[in-house]
Amino acid sequence: MTVQRNSPDLTIHRAAQVHPSAVVDPQAELDKGVVIGPGAVVGPDVSIGENTVVGPNVILDGQLIIGSQNRIFPGACLGLEPQDLKYKGASTQVVIGNRNTIRECVTINRATEEGEKTKIGDGNLLMAYCHLGHNCVIGNGIVMSNSVQVAGHVTIEDRAVIGGCLGIHQFVHIGSLAMVGGMTRVERDVPPYCLVEGHPGRLRGLNRVGIRRSGLDLHADEYRQLQEVWKLIFRSDYVLEKSLELAREKTLMPASERLCDFLKASLEKGRRGPMPFLTLRN
Questions:
Q1: Is the pLDDT of residue 269 over 70?
Q2: Could you tell me the pLDDT band of residue 278, with boundaries at 50, 70 and 90?
Q3: Residue 281, pLDDT above cutoff 80
Q4: 260 and 234 in contact (C-beta within 8 Å)?
Q5: What does the alpha-carbon distance between residue 218 and residue 274 come to, in Å, rounded to a whole number?
Q6: Disulfide: which of 35, 121, 217, 227 matches 140 by Cβ 3.0-4.6 Å?
Q7: Reading across the β-sheet that carries 93-96, which strands appear in turn?
Q8: Are 113 and 130 in contact (CB under 8 A)?
Q9: Secondary structure (3-state) at 143
């Protein structure tokens, strides 16, 4: 897959379109329909799936795999070395799925240790100036507003919504359909279906808007049980471990079971466990 740079017009990299001012390594793999904008730089270990559009002055480097139908806006830097003092030049990756929108000046770093990956799923929107650190795992359908700074080893599950201008501490886990308000300090795990905001962040209730948009509220029995379990866990006088035991005394539907499983795993992490509700009584 060699790039012919002797034409003053738009360069064709097989079925891809490469602007003459872009620098694309001959070893880079560009599928059909890929568009590389002016001033972009694509390294030798980069693979880009079909119909992905790479905007002006984008830097794609390292072992970077990008799926199909992504839109990468000007100034984004994907696949560069992790900002981690432990990094010693190991062979690591960034793997990005399909149909993602990656806006201006987003940075996504590859992982730290040999064979590890930073992973982004499908259909996500990462707004301008977001940063994803090394070894992050990002699911599907996530909306991340402007200037969200995500430290290393963070996991964000499907359809979470992250408000703008905030930082997420390393090793934090954010559950599916959670919503984090803008400028929240996220230093503890955020359970699925929950709404979090504040500095430091605190649970405020269920993310009813996200639940409604997901269609979960149409399953009346499951939604009602989720509300009951949430109140037992976060609004009762029981400590968190005891409330989880009481919740599991009944047969749990999938949403409530997911919430309880998440909290149990989060408690086992210790000091980076679940975010408290308003006060630190638990």
A1: yes
A2: low
A3: no
A4: no
A5: 28
A6: 121
A7: 29-30, 46-48, 63-66, 93-96, 117-120, 137-138, 155-156, 173-174
A8: no
A9: strand
| CA 269 to chain CA mean position, Å | 20
Q: Is the pLDDT of residue 282 over 50?
A: no
| Cα angle for residues 147, 100, 84 (degrees, 5° grid) | 50
Non-local CB neighbours of 192 within 8 Å, separated by 6+ positions: 157, 175, 176, 177, 178, 255, 258, 259, 262
- 149, 135 Cβ separation under 8 angstroms: no
Distance CA 217, CA 214 (A): 8
Q: 11-153 falls under which CATH superfamily?
A: Hexapeptide repeat proteins (2.160.10.10)
pLDDT score at 87 = 98
Domain ranges in the chain are 11-153, 212-269
The burial of 269, by beta-carbon neighbours within 10 Å (0-12 exposed, 13-18 middle, 19 or more buried), is given as: middle
CA distances from 21 to 14, 106, 250 (A): 17, 22, 64
3-state DSSP assignment of residue 32: coil
Other Cβ atoms closer than 10 A to 189: 25
User: 47-90 pLDDT, tens per residue?
Assistant: 999 999 999 999 999 999 999 999 999 999 999 999 999 999 99
Q: Which tokens sit at 40?
A: 């972009």
Instruction: Kindly report the pTM of this predicted structure.
Output: 0.93
Residue 56, classed as helix, strand or coil, is: coil
More confident residue, 118 or 271: 118
166-195 residue pLDDT tens = 999 999 999 999 999 999 999 999 999 999
